[in-house]
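Anyone opening a protein record will find just a pair of labelled lines. With that in mind, the following record should read easily:
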Amino acid sequence: MYDIDAIRRDFPILSREVNGKPLVYLDNGASAQKPQVVIDAITTAYSHEYANVHRGLHYLSNLATEKYEAVRGTIARFLGVANENQIVLNSGTTEGINMVAHGWAMPLMEAGDEIVLSVMEHHANIVPWHFLRERQGVALKWVDTDSTGALDPQKVIDAIGPKTKLVAITHLSNVLGTKVDVKTIIDAAHAKGVPVLVDGSQAAVHMPLNLDELGVDFYAITGHKLYGPSGSGAIFVHKDRLAEMRPFMGGGDMIREVSKDEVSYAAAPMKFEAGTPGIVQTIGLGVALEYMMGLGMENIAAHEDRLRDYAVGKLGGLNWLQVQGQTPDKAAIFSFTLDGAAHAHDISTILDKKGVAVRAGHHCAGPLMDHIGLTATCRASFGLYNTEAEVDALVDALELAHELFA
């Protein structure tokens, strides 16, 4: 059974009030709240178990190293990866994609080479490629969504040409909730000899994954969206791509030997993990993923699908509300505007007065906003602890906003 009341009790912040109203937290797409087990793990690590990893022989260093390294295996299980040495630990998706851009793409690409992207990409999967455009003359090719927010995989495949060196695509849009058929894209791209990077920041939160079956080259996740600490995350890198990649950053922990004249590097994945890492953050991420797997990713997905369907019905009854992204199997993410001149920031302020927390702005998705002709939207994004009653609270707050701005 998916006991939503028990799950909500696991998250202490959900019992608080905001502006005298029960908190309705619908900003999960930006960052999710943390269960008590994660908070406790962080507290324990700092108060009783803290030491640096990989470098000491004393008890605390060995304990911290054991707990830290165990997370690599946890992430591998969560992602459906048999070989945990293909998991590179980092601070999140932004660092992971930058690592690929600088460590893999930069030495392999030259002026005129192409990277295929969709207009739905988060800036984390855009700006690193712009670095290559600015510095090396790499061209970016953009694939549009249709009027419902769907991305036709064939259009992505058709954009792959003889100069294409990478497809960089989101698995799930953080603005529209659109799910992308990345398997079809990966298979076709590989048939043309082109690797694929997938931004899994949103998808990993909402659906079960098996990256070994997916066959992806790079897959990035970020901990703070996965009910874990900020500053934690990982990127899966296929062993063939690991062999092609040079270190992104240099320093301690990623070396084998250093002299005045030369340096040799540790084997992957350590080769790509320079310096003292986010030890406690990573330990917390491991606990968060164990928590999610304990609930069952299929169960989480089914719960969120029920919320999505309920919200579609409720929001669809507001004829003055414009929701972006209408694909039937979308995630429970709703970006919207109100008829009239009300700005997204003003709408979110009114909702906040009712205790409803939503995001407002461009959601780090500038090309998508240009594509749909908006400068900003409000976004309500649901997670594993949200309820139908919270959908009702959102609708009630929206009706107040409409009344005020109409």
About this structure: The CA atoms of residues 204 and 221 lie 7 Å apart. The first strand starts at residue 17 and ends at 18. The chain has a mean pLDDT of 97.
